[in-house]
Amino acid sequence: MKIKTKLISGVGLLFALIILLSTMGIFYVNALKRDTNNILVANYNTLEYSRNMLLALEKIATDRDALSVFEKNLDSQKQNVTENGEQQATADIVDHFNNLKLNPADSLLTSRIREDIAELMRLNMEAIERKSSIADATADNAVLWISVIGTACFLIAFVLLVNLPGNIANPIRELTESIKQIANQNYCERVHFQDHNEFGELAKSFNTMAEKLEEYSESKLDKIIKGKKRIEALINNMHDPVIGIDEDKKVLFANEEALKISGLKTENFIGKQIQDIAVNNDLIRDLIKDLIHPDLKKENENSLKIFANGKESYFEKEIIDINIIPTGEQQSQLIGHVIMLRNITLFKELDLAKTNFIGTVSHEFKTPISSMKMSLQLLENENVGSLNKEQKQLLESITEDTDRLLKITSELLNLAQVESGNMQLNISAVNTADIVRHTLKATKTQAEQKNIKIAISIEDHLPEIQADSQKTTWVLINLLSNAIRYSYDNSVVHLSLIKENNNVKFLVKDSGTGISEKYQNKIFERYFRVPGTQKEGTGLGLAICKEFIEAQGGSIEVVSEPGTGSTFSFTITSTENI
Ligand code: ADP
Q1: How are beta strands 453-458 and 492-500 bridged, if at all?
Q2: Rounded distance between C-alpha atoms, residue 495 and residue 515, angstroms
Q3: Centre of ligand 1 from the C-alpha of residue 540, in Å
């Protein structure tokens, strides 16, 4: 039965019973009222008239007024004949009274009338008794029916009280629980209301919804699994090693290439903590170094040399953080990392071939260029023969080009040395004055050509430095040569040497074009030249300077302002530091 029908019938029945109870109450109260009224009007009045007539009868012989009192009450009695036999008794009184009126002293008549009145009173007394028992019966009936209907009302109200709240609340509670399950993505949850009421229909709709959600989630799961498989196939077919780990550093996946280069088996890799694997595996240790200790991460340390594919192979490491923003949230959350190794062996091999080629070519060039330079010096000598003005100019320009060629070949040779990793340092205690002297000699002509004065300032009692003399001199020549090249004619370039924290600092300050801030880091990169630079050059000098100084444990930097000039400086450890 429907809840609505149940409610309507339960409450309706209760309502009907209450109306019935009230109607019956009114009915029985009315019946009792009618019964008592009946006694009052029909019998009580007759008794009253009888009593008055008896009293008047006693006085008739002596009092003339008593006659009229008797007559008045008799008339009233005549109007109030209600019982069987009362008509006859009243008629007897009338007859005997009429006779008494003619002969008031007749005592026989008086006693007859008394008997008649007594008969009338008896009749009414009996009627009162009878009517009283009728009223009793009415009252008993009222009590019975009111009790029956009252009990029925109580029973119905009790049944409703016991059943109705549960009938409504229990399904709602069950439904609430099921909705919570669905909210927790437990789509196999169903509700089981057997009744064919509103809750039954609600259960049916709920179950249909849950079924559809289950179907949808399964189809979504299927799509996700397919997508996952596709990505797995893609990762497995990649030629570069890829390793995925979760936020707790547990290995989620590793492709064939990753297994190959690490020499690990799937069962010893997937699902394991990567730190545990790293304990016995050098490569994995190297790979996760930055993840475990991000604070110790060094720049340009992404290249790895690994023995793979039967040869020394080079890989570039990249660690990508996987961040997601969970549905309904604002903050992104780290859910893992992907470690990718890019095989750069081919590029390394090509780079090595290029370096070797540059090294060989520049080495081969150096000897003929040097002999050309010597020949030019001979030609300049007046003893060999005099030259006319044009020939002298030609000779000067050939000398300039030869110097430039020599500079380029020297830079290329140094670059080859740096790039091949074959740089050899001859560290010894070096007198800084020697370095300065060689530098000044090498840059003298260049400075004279632009009429640039080199102002030297060397701090007193400078210690010797612990350096490769040739390479340090090469660096200082390069810096001074740049300062001259990028300065205006007739200016001054300052070369200073100072002591700084047990190191010796070399400073070359010019008042030339200066370098904009955004390029100040870049000028130490290979082949980089500030855009718009007019002077000829390779962009290699400063890069080699940096390599040479850092290889000796020193550091190099620039402070510059466009339009004001630049100060290049480098520090080299002094012998006092040993
Ligand atoms: P090169 O001078 O052969 O181009 P370098 O590596 O010596 O190569 O210098 C790189 C770039 O730095 C130069 O091209 C130039 O633009 C800038 N540079 C170097 N030294 C100075 C300087 N003293 N003043 C202004 N710019 C400079």
Answers
A1: parallel
A2: 19
A3: 9
The phi and psi torsions of 344 (rounded to 5 degrees) equal: -115, 20
Q: Looking at domain 350-418, which CATH architecture does it have? A: Orthogonal Bundle (1.10)
566 CB within 6 A, ligand 1: yes
Residues in CB range of 346: below 8 A, 6 or more apart: none
User: Per-residue pLDDT tens for 263-281?
Assistant: 889 999 999 999 999 998 8
Mean pLDDT of the chain: 89
- Kindly list the domain boundaries of the chain, sorted by start residue: 3-169, 235-343, 350-418, 425-577
Tokens standing for residue 158: 């009790």
- Ligand 1 pocket test: pick from 493, 529, 545, 570 the residue with the most ligand atoms within 8 Å of its Cβ: 529
Which residues, other chains included, contact 39 with Cβ-Cβ below 8 Å and sequence gap of 6+?
127, 128, 131, 132, 135
Mutate-to-test residue for ligand 1 from 403, 454, 485, 523, highest number of ligand atoms within 8 A of CB: 523
In short, whether 515's Cβ falls inside 6 Å of ligand 1 is yes
Decide whether any atom of ligand 1 lies within 6 Å of the 477 Cβ: no
- Please write down the long-range contacts of 93-97, taking CB distance under 8 Å and 24 or more positions apart: 93/53, 93/117, 93/120, 97/70, 97/71
CATH of domain 235-343: 3.30.450.20
Residues 378, 382, 386, 387, CA torsion sign: positive
Q: From ligand 1's centre to the CA of 350, what distance in Å?
A: 28
How far is Cα of residue 228 from the mean position of the Cα atoms in its chain? 23
pLDDT recorded at residue 301: 62
Task: Give every CB contact of residue 112 below 8 A, 6+ residues apart in sequence.
Answer: 92, 96
User: What is the reported pTM?
Assistant: 0.55
Ligand 1: centre distance to CA 358 (Å): 22
Give pLDDT, residue 300.
56
Longest dimension (CA), the chain: 213
Share in percent of the chain as helix, strand, coil (round to 5)? 60, 15, 20
Report CA-CA distances (Å) from 143 to 25, 60, 138, 341. Answer: 9, 51, 9, 101
Cα(482) to centroid of ligand 1, in Å?
Answer: 6
Q: Ligand 1 within 6 A of 513 CB? A: yes
pLDDT digit string, tens, across residues 499-558: 998 899 999 999 999 999 999 999 999 999 999 888 888 899 999 999 999 999 999 999
Residue 26 Ramachandran class (φ > 0 left, ψ -120 to 50 alpha, else beta): alpha
Task: Give pLDDT, residue 298.
Answer: 60
Length of the chain: 578
- Report the pLDDT averaged over residues 207-236: 87
Pairing of strands 465-468, 427-430: antiparallel
Please answer whether residues 456 and 437 qualify as being in contact, where contact means their C-beta atoms are separated by less than 8 angstroms. Answer: no
The answer to whether the beta carbons of residues 199 and 167 sit under 8 Å apart is no
* Residue among 484, 486, 494 whose CB has most ligand 1 atoms within 8 A, to mutate: 486
Would the CB of 512 count as within 6 Å of ligand 1? yes
Q: Domain 425-577's class? A: alpha beta
Q: Confirm or reject: Cβ of 278 under 6 Å from ligand 1.
A: no
Query: What does the alpha-carbon distance between residue 96 and residue 78 come to, in Å, rounded to a whole number?
Result: 14
